Amino acid sequence: MTTLARFSALVYTLLVVEVLFVLAAAPGLVVLLLLDRDASNVPLFVVCAVPLGPAVSAAVYAVHRRRSDLADLHPARAFLRGYRLNVLGVLRVWLPALAVLAVVFVSLVNRAAARIPGWWVGALWVLAAVVVLWSANALVISSLYVFRAADVARLAAYFLAHCPGVALGTAGLLLTAGAITFLASEAFVLLPASLFIAALVLVCRPMCAEIERRFVA
Predict the structure, then answer these.
(1) Rounded CA gap, 80 and 77, in Å?
(2) Based on the structure, what is the number of domains in the chain?
(3) What angle is formed at CA 79 by the lines to CA 177 and CA 53, rounded to 5 degrees?
(4) Residues 149/53, Cβ–Cβ less than 8 Å
(5) How far apart are CA 206 and CA 170, in angstroms?
(6) In this structure, are residues 178 and 136 in contact, taking their beta carbons and an 8 Å threshold?
(7) pTM, full prediction
(8) For residue 3, which of 34, 80, 120, 215 sits 20 to 30 Å off, Cα-Cα?
(9) Which domain holds residue 184?
């Protein structure tokens, strides 16, 4: 296949995945875009993120399964198959992560009223960062492999320490997305969502290679 054909296939895949991702995440995103950026809405922000996990998972599955053969280029089919196969497994790790983040961020926004000491505020931010990075690992693992939820949780934690490059790359992607959201709007970060997901799949390749070498028969 020529370079132009490969590039065209990649662009087509990313465009289709982008549209399907937005549609899959729409129930939460629509409400999220209507909410004011107010501390009192933090619990609602977390609830709006529930559909995001399965949507990211399906997009990861579709991008990872992308075929190099133009005759077998069906990203929509791959996305829908990934969503159907992974939605329950993803929610088993995604919902607990969101619950922890909800508690952390509610504590942070009410730190003055609760008289939380400064060192504890710092610890909460560290906990939030760890949970977010763990969630990214867990989403990728549960999207591409069939493990029990407990095993996904352990593997996601294991690779935080044993693949620091993956954690750093994921952190860079999340910081970029967060900066776009903070400086512009949640809507703007949706425009390159498929690019972020493709980058996440690329960043997580060392982790996936290790999983396939050690844990997948």
Answers:
(1) 5
(2) 1
(3) 45
(4) no
(5) 12
(6) no
(7) 0.89
(8) 80
(9) 3-214
